[in-house]
Amino acid sequence: MVSPFILMEGAPVRDRIYADLAPRIAAASAAGHVPTLATLVVGDDPASLSYVRGKVNAAEKLGIASIQEHLPSDAGEARIRHVIDEWNHADGIDGILVQLPLPSGYDTAGVQQTVRADKDVDGFHPANMGALALKGFSPMFVSCTPAGVMEMLAFYGIDPAGARAVVLGRSNIVGMPMALLLTKADATVTIAHSRTGSLPELCRQADILVVAIGKPRFVTASMVKEGAVVVDVGINRVDDRLVGDVAFDDVRSVAAALTPVPKGVGPLTVAMLMHNVVVAAERKAG
Ligand code: GUN
């Protein structure tokens, strides 16, 4: 019998994560500390402003407090570091998020390292990313989008153990931590990118294909193995519509499971951020 196609929507996974967090937020608040997230946006990139609004709105709905700072794009690195430094020392702040990308000219890696690793709810600090890569170490936080993908796979009953996984994209935010998480989950992982040769053939070997390459509808059915699980992390604006990195209608005909864009992975990035803020608050409370 052929298994039915699974449309891996994010909402039910997000709802389950929020159902787990709600009583924990209530307990922390009742004990005298409302979990608190501080967000910094530099410049006026519309997508960044919209993403941060989504994060702040989600926090508000859940009862997580948020503090926001919006600096002009020419604020300069010293001012950014000053804001982060204040937040690093503020007892009431559990998590700090610097929305990326920073405007051109800023030393992104330098700014990321300024955030205290135990408040780094994005999981971007080298101490957290390094701990994710090393056996015997546990990161304090894992990058939200790849952590959300792992939640998505678990929710839909997909076990990466023993699977061949291809991660398309090698960014710090998605590709690299995604590959590390899948490796930890006992998949055999290949990281592919724009310079990889024979990309269609490589992708066709994947039981699990995670796509975060930033090119609209890049992955077509001819790049997907029959029965593969395909996770589309891309969000591209084309003719005022949001489309993923996967040609959805085409790939749907061969994949066993596929995430839509929007309403796939997107909600889970925010949900895992909320999860990380709650974990940070609980850790501090001991
Ligand atoms: N820009 C795109 N995704 C993210 C994310 O998960 N965190 C931050 N801080 N910036 C981003």
Q: How are the SSEs placed, and which strands pair?
A:
Blueprint: E1 6-7, H1 11-30, E2 36-42, H2 46-62, E3 65-71, H3 77-89, E4 95-98, H4 108-114, H5 126-133, H6 144-155, E5 164-168, H7 175-184, E6 188-192, H8 199-204, E7 208-211, E8 229-232, E9 236-238, E10 241-243, H9 248-252, E11 257-258, H10 266-285
Parallel strand pairs: 1-11, 2-3, 2-4, 5-6, 5-7, 7-8, 8-11
Antiparallel strand pairs: 9-10
Bound molecules: guanine (GUN).
Guanine binds next to strand 4 and helix 6.
Your description of this structure?
By secondary structure, this protein is an alpha/beta fold. It has two domains: 32-125, Rossmann fold (3-Layer(aba) Sandwich); 143-267, Rossmann fold (3-Layer(aba) Sandwich). Helix content is 41%, strand content 16%. The protein has ten helices and eleven strands. It has helices spanning 11-30, 46-62, 77-89, 108-114, 126-133, 144-155, 175-184, 199-204, 248-252, 266-285, and strands spanning 6-7, 36-42, 65-71, 95-98, 164-168, 188-192, 208-211, 229-232, 236-238, 241-243, 257-258. A six-stranded parallel sheet has the order 1-11-8-7-5-6. It has a three-stranded parallel sheet with strand order 3-2-4, with helices on both faces. β9 and β10 (241-243) form a beta hairpin. α6 (144-155) crosses α7. The protein starts with 5 loop residues before the first strand and ends with a helix. The relative contact order is 0.16. The mean pLDDT is 97. Bound molecules: guanine.
